[in-house]
Amino acid sequence: VLDVDTVIIAIGQTADMAFLEGQGSAITHNAHGTINVDPLTLATDAPDVFAAGDITTGPATVTDAMASGREAAESMHRSLRGLPLDREYRVTRPSVRVAAPRLSDQELQEIAETGRCRPPQLPASRRSRGYAEVRGCFSEEVAVGQAKRCLRCDLAVVEES
Fold this sequence. Notes:
mainly alpha; disordered C terminus; about 35% helix; single chain
């Protein structure tokens, strides 16, 4: 038994599409029980009507519904201002490209011999004694060594030989 102020039931529910029936609505829905919308603008088939959230996607997360609502609001804003509904994508930060490290043959051999490391773990006998973190972190030296392996598919060949 839990004492709560509010319960929001959000599992296994479907949208009630009765409001679309018999009124000559231009809003269409599909066999999945969701309203058809433009995936980029969230505009329905009816002029100046937008939809968002589970009624357009089916059951999803609250975060997805909130993001969808924001996108629909942006489209509504553009519609009310007489702007094109097409969303504009602009780069807001410079692109960062990191080149693969140039390693000597000796460094490649050392990395290949070391292989993939597993993070340290608390022994099972100590896990039941408290709330200490079970999986630890790499030391800086080990983390840097493992990072050098990243996207180096050629190391797999060295490891197999």
